[in-house]
């Protein structure tokens, strides 16, 4: 203790204060952004009220604005993405942790992390130039011919639209969901699994009755994390969703999302109410994403408490 | 993670961060993306000659108008002219720098460029969702001898706000009463039907890919992407091909003198050879600028561009401003730009 220089107490305090400042600045920034969004969106909030959330007209000429088709498109494309990404990610995580020979684990892990590093505009262009033509020529006609009587599969084989957007989003969020799941599964104490095998359980039973339940709500957290990313994704969606401000029952019809709408129209919005309505769209996305992430945090905390008790 | 929102914040930051501080020999401008390639080419050549730099941000016409109004730039550039009243209120003057054309493009198997003829009424009804198939009676009527298939028409429009859309909708607005009542003119409108591609390249891609589609792009994009354009009837009831000549004809026939603020809208101009969907791109400057030195430098640059930039413009598929218009501009600058030096 004697070797400690007298001014180290001050350095400690400084360091502590600095770290606290950095940490708090994130919260301050969040609140500041929220305030700015509300302030800028206020003219639109005052003009359209709750009708902004339920209206389905977006007419910059009139000007009359309603956000429902964009909110709908944001949610539906993200849900499609989750519906595809969840089983695939689960499969990847289970394979890596439970089945893969150890020499294969690292390459698969690296490949998935690389998927996460690809810029979203690349996904968008790949979607538009590669995926959309293939989808329009080989997949869509099959569904439209055989299942076209169901509104879900009606429409023209454009190759762009709500489902293609969801599909591209799925590829983009699989790395996030699967890597969190892999970490969760690795946390399962080996003794539990070995006990399972000890009493004669098959691999299938161990995975579904021991590993997955142990990870429990953490899986939910991982999914919401993916959802958070899907909700706000802009460039890739803008390329492939079709940018049409309509709500349609068909998965193949073009739609739009909040972030696509913003990316498209922000630069040319001149009138105050137009700009304000776009900011309000951003505010809605902020709130949706915030709620999704807050839910995830709550769920993972509950899981941590549960794990601590057992 | 949340990019839409991030864009919002960035935009706000950019608005705040722009200083109006001017370095010697530096002109700041912002606006039209349509004119961006031309202005950068001009600026590059002018810089080689004089050492004067142009800092042009192609943030879109809407942004250009906003920035010049908040005086963060020396000039704004817009594809949609401001009205005389707006100019008056904000103390701005505007003048056209170059002219371009918007061209309807289609994708029909076996149909050659320029083979299909269209009228403004027909385009309006296609974009309103009233004409749904290519073998529609009204389309067949004016296209005898063209094999129009029984194929669904897929309408393609610009999903992003753009001057191109403004010119296109302005034309439909003038021609079709139904369009005027239902949709109107704007950089982005409430499209009754169709799919949206981002940017000229987005529309060009969709039209190339989707069979039976129709879209509209700037002339240069139609040329470069080898898209199938259509002929179009004009006010002189003739069917014309889109070309530099037919755009020039539209600009030449327009009433520049009688339009306050030179805010001439070049759609549906008279003349047998005029292309009906042409448009000029405009520059906005202050009549009473606070920084006279920069304004003088700037006007010298524009003057040089009007005179020496003609061939550069042509080579990049822009139509230069007619000579008589340039002379009018010179007079207007001398008369209206007041510098207390």
What would you note in describing this structure?
The complex is a heterodimer of chains A (310) and B (341). Chain A has 310 residues and is mostly helical. Chain A has a single domain, classed as MetI-like fold (Orthogonal Bundle). In chain A, 76% of the residues lie in helices and 1% in strands. Chain A contains twelve helices and two strands. Chain A has helices spanning 8-48, 51-54, 68-99, 102-117, 120-147, 162-186, 190-198, 203-215, 217-232, 235-240, 258-265, 272-309; strands at residues 58-59, 64-65. In chain A, strands 1-2 form a two-stranded antiparallel sheet. In chain A, strand 1 and strand 2 form a beta hairpin. The model of chain A has no long low-confidence stretch (mean pLDDT 89). In chain B, strands 1, 2, 3, 4, 6, 7, 8, 9, 12 and 13 form a ten-stranded mixed sheet that branches. The relative contact order of chain B is 0.17. Chain B has 341 residues and is α/β, with parallel strands linked by helices. In chain B, helix 5 crosses helix 7 (163-175). Chain B has helices at residues 3-17, 36-50, 61-69, 84-90, 120-127, 137-142, 163-175, 177-182, 199-209, 219-224, 244-253, 292-308, 310-315, 323-336, and strands spanning 26-31, 53-57, 75-78, 92-107, 117-118, 154-158, 195-197, 213-218, 228-229, 231-233, 239-240, 278-286, 319-320. Chain B has 14 helices and 13 strands. The interface between A and B is large, with 55 and 44 residues.
């Amino acid at each position: 203790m004697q070797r400690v220089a007298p001014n180290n107490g001050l350095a400690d305090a400084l360091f502590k204060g600095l770290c606290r400042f950095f940490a708090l600045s994130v919260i301050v920034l969040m609140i500041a952004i929220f305030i700015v969004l509300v302030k800028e969106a206020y003219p639109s909030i005052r003009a359209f009220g709750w009708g902004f959330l339920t209206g389905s007209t977006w007419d910059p000429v009139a000007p009359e604005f309603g956000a429902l088709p964009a909110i709908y498109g944001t949610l539906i494309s993200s849900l499609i993405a989750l519906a595809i990404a969840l089983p695939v990610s689960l499969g990847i995580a289970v394979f890596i942790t439970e089945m893969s020979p150890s020499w294969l684990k690292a390459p698969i892990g690296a490949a998935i992390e690389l998927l996460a590093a690809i810029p979203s505009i690349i996904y968008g262009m790949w979607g538009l130039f590669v995926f959309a033509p293939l989808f329009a020529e080989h997949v869509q006609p099959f569904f439209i011919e055989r299942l076209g009587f169901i509104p879900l599969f009606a429409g023209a084989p454009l190759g762009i639209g709500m489902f293609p957007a969801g599909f591209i989003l799925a590829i983009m969020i699989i790395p996030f969901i699967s890597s969190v799941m892999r970490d969760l599964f690795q946390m399962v104490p080996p003794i539990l699994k070995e006990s399972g095998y000890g009493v004669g359980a098959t691999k299938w039973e161990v995975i579904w009755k021991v590993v997955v339940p142990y990870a429990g709500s953490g899986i939910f957290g991982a999914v919401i994390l993916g959802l958070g990313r899907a909700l706000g994704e802009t460039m890739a969606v803008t390329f492939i969703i079709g940018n049409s401000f309509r709500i349609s029952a068909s998965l193949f019809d073009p739609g739009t999302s909040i972030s696509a709408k913003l990316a498209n129209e922000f630069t040319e919005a001149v009138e105050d109410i137009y700009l304000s309505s776009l900011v309000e769209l951003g505010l809605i996305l902020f709130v949706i994403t915030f709620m999704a992430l807050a839910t995830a945090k709550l769920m993972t905390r509950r899981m941590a408490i549960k794990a601590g008790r057992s | 993670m949340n990019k839409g929102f991030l864009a919002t914040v960035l935009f706000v930051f950019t608005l705040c961060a722009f200083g109006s501080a001017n370095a010697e020999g530096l002109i700041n401008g912002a606006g039209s993306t349509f004119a961006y390639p031309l202005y950068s080419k001009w600026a590059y050549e002018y810089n080689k000659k004089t050492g004067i730099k142009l800092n042009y941000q192609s943030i879109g016409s809407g942004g250009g108008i906003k920035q010049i109004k908040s005086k963060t730039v020396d000039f704004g550039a817009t594809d949609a002219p401001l009205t005389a009243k707006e100019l008056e209120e904000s103390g701005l003057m505007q003048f056209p720098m170059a002219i371009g054309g918007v061209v309807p493009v289609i994708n029909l198997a076996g149909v050659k460029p320029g083979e299909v003829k269209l009228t403004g009424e027909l385009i309006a009804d296609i974009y309103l969702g009233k004409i749904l198939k290519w073998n529609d009676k009204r389309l067949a009527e004016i296209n005898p001898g063209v094999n129009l298939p029984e194929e669904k028409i897929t309408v393609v429009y610009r999903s992003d706000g753009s001057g191109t859309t403004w010119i296109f909708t302005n034309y439909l607005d003038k021609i079709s009463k139904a369009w005027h009542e239902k949709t109107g003119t704007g950089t982005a409108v409430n499209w009754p039907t169709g799919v949206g591609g981002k940017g000229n390249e987005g529309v060009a891609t969709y039209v190339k890919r989707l069979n039976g589609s129709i879209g509209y792009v700037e002339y240069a994009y139609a040329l470069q992407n080898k898209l199938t354009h259509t002929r179009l009837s004009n006010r002189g009831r003739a069917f014309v091909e889109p070309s530099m000549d037919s755009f020039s004809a539209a600009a030449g026939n327009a009433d520049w003198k009688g339009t306050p603020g030179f805010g001439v809208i070049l759609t549906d101009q008279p003349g047998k050879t005029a292309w009906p969907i042409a448009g000029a791109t405009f520059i906005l400057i202050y009549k009473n600028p606070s920084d006279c030195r920069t304004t003088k430098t700037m006007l010298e640059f524009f003057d040089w561009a009007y005179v020496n930039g003609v061939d550069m413009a042509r080579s990049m598929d822009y139509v230069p401003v007619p000579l008589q218009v340039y002379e009018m501009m010179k007079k207007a600058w001398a008369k209206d730009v007041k510098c207390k030096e």
